[in-house]
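Issue 218. Parser rejects a valid record. Input:
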Amino acid sequence: MYVVRITPADTGARVSIRRRVAGLLPLTDVVGQLLSWTDRCLTIRTRDGSIVKVAETDLVAGRRVPPQPVRRSAAGQAAGQTEANPQ
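Output the parser choked on:
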């Protein structure tokens, strides 16, 4: 069962939504920052900077998700560098 657990009040938060699309696959997911929810349209910026607009009528499910984890480089870890212990 799909549930929409986000509202326009979640603007600015990181969200995951499932939406209806035309084509072979009837549903697809979008994860990113909810930039706006106006005029029955959600605008989401994904990790790669793409802007995705989703009509409210195509929204099947949605929820807030935690911020994206910070990636650490393998080179920094190999050298023993951490944010708390920079060299």
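Fixed in the parser; the record now loads. The two ends are 50 Å apart (CA to CA).
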